[in-house]
Structure formats: structure tokens, C-alpha cells
Specification:
By secondary structure, the chain is α+β, with helices and mostly antiparallel strands. The protein contains three helices and seven strands, in the order E-H-H-E-E-E-E-E-E-H. It has a seven-stranded antiparallel beta sheet with strand order 1-7-6-5-4-3-2, covered by helices on one side. The longest helix is centred in the C-terminal third of the chain and has 22 residues. Pfam families: AHSA1.
Length: 155
């Protein structure tokens, strides 16, 4: 069993708007990749039991070795639970030959109304030991900042 990483942010958008961005293919490709990466979704099935496959590519792979190849992280994500405007639970498996990166990472995106916005709390459970904690939490925070910018600009 791996560790648990966390990040949270209040976003100036309704829970319904944030939830929509968590389940829209084009939105995810735009905001989910952390700074220094771009993403492309290959497969998309937004329902419980469905999921997606995302290719994350490092814009500058120097010093940022990917999990799947020198420049990429490939992740298969399943939707384990979808509760409209409240929660999205994803199970993510990275394609990697390194056994320290193996396993299923559970990402829970919890949405709670906070004044005129939404507090988004991300909990990553069973994080494989080969994923650096500080870098992972920084990546989650970066994705949350991207999500905020994306939905706040649309609102």
C-alpha cells in the first residue's frame, strides 16, 4: 500500500461547473496536465466503469524522465464513482516498466460549495513509492490551478 497525497483549492465557480470540467474530454486535455506537460486523450468513456487513456508529454524532458518513456507518462484511468456536483473517483494505472511505479492510484476529487465558489480537494491514495511526493503534490496543485483558470475564464 502506498502513501496518500493531498491538495485543495477554492475555485470561483459552482460545483456543477467544476464537475462538468472533470467529465469533459476537451476540458481535461486542457487543464489536467500539470505545468510543463501537455495531454492528449486517446480513449474516452465518461461513466462509472468507463474511463480514459491519457498521454502526458513533457515539454522539456531534460531532468524530468517520464514513467512510460523519456518524454511521456501514459495513464489508464477508470471512473470508479461519479456523484454529480460532489465527487469523482478515478483509478489510475501508469504504464511503466519500473516496479516502483506499479499499482493503482486512487484519485478522489471532492467538491464542496464554498461561498460563491467550490472547494476542490484532491486525495491521491495508494501512490506508488516511485512517484516523488513533493513533485506529485506540486503536480496536483498545478492541475488545480489550471482547472481554476479554465473554469473561471469560462464563467
Amino acid at each position: 500500500m502506498g502513501r496518500t497525497d493531498h491538495a485543495s483549492r477554492v475555485i470561483a465557480a459552482s460545483p456543477a461547473t467544476v464537475y462538468g470540467a472533470l467529465l469533459d474530454r476537451e476540458s481535461l486535455e486542457t487543464w489536467l496536465p500539470p505545468d510543463g506537460m501537455r495531454g492528449r486523450i486517446e480513449r474516452w468513456d465518461p461513466r462509472p466503469g468507463g474511463g480514459f487513456r491519457m498521454i502526458l508529454t513533457y515539454l522539456d524532458p531534460e531532468g524530468s524522465p517520464g514513467k512510460t518513456s523519456d518524454a511521456t507518462d501514459v495513464v489508464d484511468v477508470g471512473f470508479a464513482d461519479l456523484v454529480p456536483n460532489e465527487r469523482v473517483v478515478q483509478r489510475a494505472v501508469f504504464e511503466a516498466e519500473d516496479p516502483s511505479l506499479a499499482g493503482t492510484l486512487t484519485m478522489t476529487w471532492h467538491l464542496a460549495a464554498a461561498g460563491d465558489g467550490t472547494e476542490v480537494t484532491v486525495t491521491a491514495a495508494d501512490v506508488p513509492p516511485g512517484i516523488d511526493q513533493a513533485a506529485h503534490e506540486e503536480g496536483i496543485a498545478s492541475s488545480l490551478a489550471n482547472l481554476a483558470a479554465y473554469v473561471e475564464a469560462a464563467g
